[in-house]
Design goal:
Number of strands: 0
Shape: flat
Order of helices and strands: HH
Structural class: mainly alpha
Pfam families: adh_short_C2
Radius of gyration: 13 Å
InterPro entries: NAD(P)-bd_dom_sf, SDR_fam
Helix content: 25-40%
Distance between the termini: 16 Å
Protein name: Short-chain dehydrogenase
Number of helices: 2
């Protein structure tokens, strides 16, 4: 599975937490109507 990821590794909980924290703060206040995908590049390789 890891070889299918562009980054060739699984993410760790801290990396996902940073994404969630970013979305929960005013740093993301201008982001509207989009998805933020934190999948290590898996989605790119399946298109």
């Amino acid at each position: 599975m890891q070889q299918r990821l562009l980054l060739k590794r699984f993410g760790n909980p801290e990396e996902i937490a940073k994404v969630a924290l970013f979305l929960a703060t005013m740093d993301s206040s201008f982001i509207v109507g989009t998805e933020l995908v934190a999948d290590g590049g898996l989605l790119v390789n399946t298109i």
